[in-house]
Amino acid sequence: MQDEYRTVARAGVHETEINRSRFLCALAPAATEQEAQDFIAAVRKEHADATHNCYAYVIGAGAAVQKASDDGEPGGTAGVPMLQMLLRRDMRYVVAVVTRYYGGVKLGAGGLIRAYGGAVGEALDALGTLTRTRFRLATVTVDHQRAGKVQNDLRSTGRTVRDVRYGEAVTIEIGLPDTDVDAFRSWLADATAGTAGFELGGEAYGDTAAQRHSDTAIR
Prior knowledge:
The chain is an alpha+beta fold.
């Protein structure tokens, strides 16, 4: 698994105008290829009267699935530069649709490439991105007497509490960086006098911070 990847912070639309043509770039997170295709279909339906609805998407932390479409523009002038912009920005699990309303002035192949790629880049700048980091899932089991303090300590030290369940004991699901597992195990033993249970699970990705990265923060 990749250690981290970037994705778009939120769904949204950013519009630019070039030589009287309107370019509307709709971006959205997409966990699966089906979600990406559903988003594309929704945008096409909304803008059925547009000259073109070109798209690109990247699915998978390792960019395993990459698709693009020129939707009637000259080959390689729309979908490919859109896809290249997503990859250049290290974007994953994201779909982009650029809707063009033709304004009567031809842009030429070079102009189209700059327009479609640029529309995606400007939309990423406007909507922002999130970095998601790989972590280990883990389960802490603690008695009710200590549960409140353990939860407060977890949150105050910036650890990710994913779920809390109450039964005969309290089960707290957390996310940990791999490099933090041994230190956390020792801390938990000290904090609960060795009474807490600790079990490692699988791997997942999560937001390291709800921070947007501007173009200057993205290589």
